[in-house]
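Researcher: Let's do a round of design. I'm pasting the C-alpha cells now; please hold your answer until I've finished.
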C-alpha cells in the first residue's frame, strides 16, 4: 500500500469514527485522535505539569529498576514501543539493554514520530531505529529484523485509556505479535485518592483543557467541521464505580455543529466523552492479562504505590 493510500484510509477512518461517535446518545470521540502534531506537543507539556504525577513517577520507577527490566527483556531483543511519542522513557531502558536487535517506535502522529526517531538514532548510532507510522489499535506489520525475542514496550499507562473489552483485545494482539516467550513491559496507573487523581487532569494552567479542545480544532481542520472550541468547557472527574477518570467537552450553550453534510445538535450542558483513564490494582491487572495469554513475571512500583511497571511473558 502506498503512503498516499494509507493516508487516505486513515483520513476516512477518522471521519467515520467522528460521525459515528457524534451520532451516539452519549456523544463520544476516540482519544487516539488527540495526537496530531499540536496534540502531541500539548501532551508533552502536560507531562511536565506539577499536578500530573504519572510521568515523573513512572520515570522514577524506570530510573531505579531499568537494569532489572532490561534483564527481563533479555539480550538481542527487538523492542517495539506502542504510542511512542517523544521517546523519553525508552532511553532509560535502551541504556541497559544488552545488544538490542533494534527499536521499533510505533505512533499514529507521523511527523512527531519521525522527528523523535531521528533524534534518538543520532544519540544511539549503533542501534537500528525503525519507526512505524500506524494506529497500534489495529493490525500493523513489524519490519523484518532478526531477534532473539520480541518485547513490546507500552509505557505511560496508556492501557488505561481502553475500555476493559478493548484492553483485553489489545493484550491478546500483543501476545500474538511477540509470540510465545515474547514479552510485554507496560505502565499501569494505580488506584489512589481522588485528591491526587483529579488535579492531574484539571491543571491550573489549563494545558489539559487546551489538549482536550484541540481535538475539535483537528476535526475542523481535517474534516471540515465548524466546531467553536471556545464554546466547550473541559471537565474531568473520577468515576468511582468504574475506577476511571473521565474527560469530557461540555457544551456551554445550545448549539449546532455541521460536518460532512450532517448536523449535530447540542443542548447546554451536553457533553462529548473524549477519554477514559482506568486505574488498576496490580493483582487485578495480572489476572486480566493472564486471561489474554500473558503471565505477569515482575512488578515494580514507587514508594507511594501511585504507579507500576509490569513485565509479562506470552504463554502458548
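Researcher: That's everything. Go ahead.
Model: Designed sequence:
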Amino acid at each position: 500500500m502506498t503512503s498516499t493510500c494509507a493516508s487516505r484510509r486513515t483520513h476516512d477512518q477518522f471521519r467515520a469514527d467522528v460521525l459515528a461517535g457524534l451520532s451516539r446518545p452519549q456523544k463520544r470521540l476516540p482519544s487516539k485522535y488527540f495526537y496530531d502534531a499540536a496534540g502531541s506537543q500539548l501532551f508533552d507539556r502536560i507531562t511536565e505539569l506539577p499536578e500530573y504525577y504519572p510521568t515523573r513517577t513512572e520515570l522514577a520507577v524506570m530510573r531505579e529498576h531499568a537494569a532489572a527490566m532490561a534483564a527481563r527483556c533479555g539480550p538481542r531483543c527487538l523492542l517495539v514501543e506502542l504510542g511512542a511519542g517523544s521517546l523519553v522513557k525508552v532511553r532509560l531502558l535502551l541504556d541497559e539493554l544488552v545488544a538490542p536487535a533494534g527499536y521499533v517506535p510505533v505512533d499514529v502522529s507521523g511527523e512527531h514520530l519521525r522527528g523523535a526517531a531521528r533524534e534518538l538514532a543520532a544519540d544511539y548510532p549503533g542501534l537500528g531505529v525503525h519507526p512505524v507510522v500506524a494506529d497500534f489499535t489495529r493490525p500493523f506489520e513489524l519490519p523484518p529484523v532478526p531477534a532473539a525475542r520480541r518485547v513490546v514496550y507500552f509505557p505511560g499507562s496508556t492501557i488505561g485509556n481502553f475500555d476493559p473489552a478493548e484492553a483485553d483485545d489489545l493484550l491478546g494482539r500483543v501476545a500474538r505479535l511477540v509470540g510465545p516467550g515474547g514479552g510485554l513491559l507496560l505502565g499501569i496507573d494505580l488506584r489512589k485518592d481522588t485528591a491526587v487523581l483529579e488535579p492531574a487532569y484539571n491543571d491550573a494552567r489549563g494545558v489539559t483543557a487546551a489538549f482536550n479542545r484541540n481535538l475539535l480544532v483537528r476535526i475542523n481542520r481535517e474534516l471540515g467541521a465548524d466546531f467553536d472550541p471556545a464554546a466547550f468547557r473541559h471537565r474531568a472527574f473520577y468515576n468511582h464505580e468504574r475506577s476511571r477518570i473521565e474527560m469530557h467537552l461540555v457544551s456551554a450553550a445550545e448549539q449546532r455543529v455541521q460536518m460532512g453534510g450532517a448536523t449535530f445538535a447540542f443542548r447546554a450542558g451536553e457533553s462529548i466523552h473524549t477519554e477514559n483513564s482506568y486505574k488498576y490494582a496490580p493483582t487485578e491487572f495480572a489476572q486480566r492479562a493472564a486471561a489474554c495469554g500473558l503471565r505477569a513475571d515482575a512488578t515494580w512500583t514507587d514508594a507511594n504505590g501511585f504507579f507500576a511497571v509490569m513485565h509479562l511473558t506470552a504463554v502458548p
